[in-house]
Every structure is written in structure tokens, then in C-alpha cells.
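C-alpha cells incoming
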């Protein structure tokens, strides 16, 4: 039997309070330490994760937590038990930005059930923007509905969010020298990338390696706003919706027709 659906408003209050108490007071005041995978972690990551974990255990003691700052063995164990529900947490997405004093980072929380993301929340404490979504129930920004236009930018007129670091060199070079779009940005927080797409602040997305906690909450917000997200194991592969701890290629576009054109261009160039 599946656990009763958690309250989205209560979860929103929790992520706001946590980010405001544990992340923002440390902004510009903490040093980062390197992890084995080359990424960084700060005291803010650990403090936010600890606070969220304790609160969720008190509110929903039967739902296990999968978080970025856990070992791979612990993460696999939680995902294997997620048939009846599991949390997926990135306590500070954009830690490199945070540590450098660049004001673009977020706390991301998702609820996974039976291989699907049911709830997603992404909170940007700098701009005090809370993005939220329920599977089949739409997306919102600070409680106001998010809904992308069914027809929007053409490929040639689009603004793209592209992370060049994780792309194949040939594809990165092609995008840098002969892009099919009008303009490109790379902002450094995958959760907020998805949410800014959902808010219509960009039209296209390409990222060569995202983990489950990178995309779980944000991609749901984007999808529920009417966007077209696609997670791939290979550039020439099919879009997949299953939940895995493997790194995934992430591609997105503001509407399905634009997504088809963008994917075709990327596959031909990869």
C-alpha cells in the first residue's frame, strides 16, 4: 500500500525554512571541500540535509530519504525501496556557485513512488522563488500557475541553457561555433535550469550528465508547466522516464515540436 500523498504546502514551508536558516546565513562565509567525483561540498549542504532529513523523519517516518550527500550504497538501497515512496533531496544544487559567491543555487526535494516523480519542489533562496509541481496537477511559482505557451520560439530564435563541460567535445565545438539557436547561457544549477525553462526564461536545454537528484524535482516542474523534457542514456537513444542513479543526458525544449527539432540537431551533431 502506497503512503498517503505528502502535503505540498507543508513541504514548501520546510524547504523555505531550511534554506533561509541553513543556507543563506552561510552564503559568502564558508569554504568548499572537494569530493571524490570532483564536485564540492560545504557546511551548508550538510546542515541543510541534516535539517530536512530530521524534519521528514518526524513528519513521514515510513518514507526513506535518498540524498546527494550519501554514499552510493546508501542511495541504491533507498531507491530499491522506493516502490511505496522515497524522498530525493539535493540540499544545495549549485554548490560551486554558492562557494564562489555567485547567487544562483537552490534546494531541491522530490517524492518518488513506483518509478515516477510524484511531487517536486525547487527553492531559490536568493530570489525567494519556490517552484513546485504535482504529477498530473500542474506547476506553480510561489503558488501562481506556470503554463508555457504551446507554440513558442523557433530553434533559430531560441535562448538555450547549455552546459558545455559535460558534452562530447565535437558537439560542444559545434554548439560554440555554429549554434542553431540565437543565444546561450550556462548558469550552474541544474534544478534551477529546469525551473527557469518552466518559467519561460529560456527555450532549450542540453546537459551531458545529470544525477537523479539533479533532475527529479526540476524536470517535473518543467513537464507540468507544459515543457518537453527528455532524459537519455545515449545521444542516439530514446527518451526514458525510469528512475536510476546512472548519469543521464538531459535535453529540454519549451514545446514538443521544438524538442523534436532540437533533438534531431543534437543527434546529428553529437
Amino acid at each position: 500500500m502506497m503512503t498517503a500523498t505528502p502535503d505540498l504546502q507543508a513541504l514548501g514551508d520546510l524547504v523555505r525554512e531550511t534554506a533561509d536558516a541553513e543556507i543563506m546565513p552561510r552564503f559568502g562565509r564558508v569554504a568548499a571541500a572537494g569530493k571524490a567525483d570532483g564536485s564540492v561540498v560545504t557546511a551548508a549542504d550538510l546542515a541543510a540535509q541534516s535539517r530536512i532529513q530530521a524534519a521528514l523523519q518526524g513528519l513521514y517516518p515510513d518514507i526513506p530519504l535518498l540524498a546527494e550527500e550519501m554514499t552510493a550504497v546508501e542511495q541504491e538501497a533507498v531507491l530499491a525501496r522506493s516502490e511505496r515512496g522515497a524522498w530525493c533531496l539535493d540540499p544545495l544544487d549549485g554548490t560551486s556557485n554558492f562557494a564562489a559567491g555567485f547567487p544562483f543555487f537552490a534546494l531541491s526535494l522530490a517524492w518518488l513512488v513506483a518509478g515516477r516523480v510524484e511531487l517536486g519542489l525547487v527553492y531559490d533562496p536568493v530570489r525567494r522563488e519556490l517552484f513546485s509541481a504535482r504529477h498530473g496537477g500542474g506547476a506553480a511559482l510561489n503558488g501562481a500557475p506556470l503554463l508555457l505557451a504551446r507554440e513558442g520560439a523557433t530553434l533559430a530564435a531560441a535562448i538555450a541553457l547549455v552546459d558545455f563541460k559535460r558534452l562530447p567535445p565535437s558537439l560542444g565545438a559545434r554548439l560554440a561555433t555554429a549554434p542553431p539557436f540565437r543565444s546561450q547561457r550556462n548558469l550552474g544549477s541544474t534544478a534551477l535550469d529546469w525551473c527557469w525553462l518552466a518559467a519561460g526564461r529560456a527555450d532549450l536545454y542540453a546537459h551531458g550528465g545529470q544525477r537523479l537528484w539533479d533532475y527529479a524535482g526540476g524536470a517535473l516542474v518543467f513537464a507540468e508547466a507544459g515543457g518537453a523534457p527528455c532524459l537519455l542514456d545515449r545521444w542516439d537513444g530514446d527518451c526514458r522516464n525510469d528512475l536510476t542513479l546512472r548519469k543521464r543526458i538531459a535535453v529540454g525544449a519549451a514545446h514538443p515540436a521544438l524538442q523534436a527539432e532540437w533533438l534531431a540537431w543534437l543527434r546529428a551533431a553529437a
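note: The chain has a mean pLDDT of 92.
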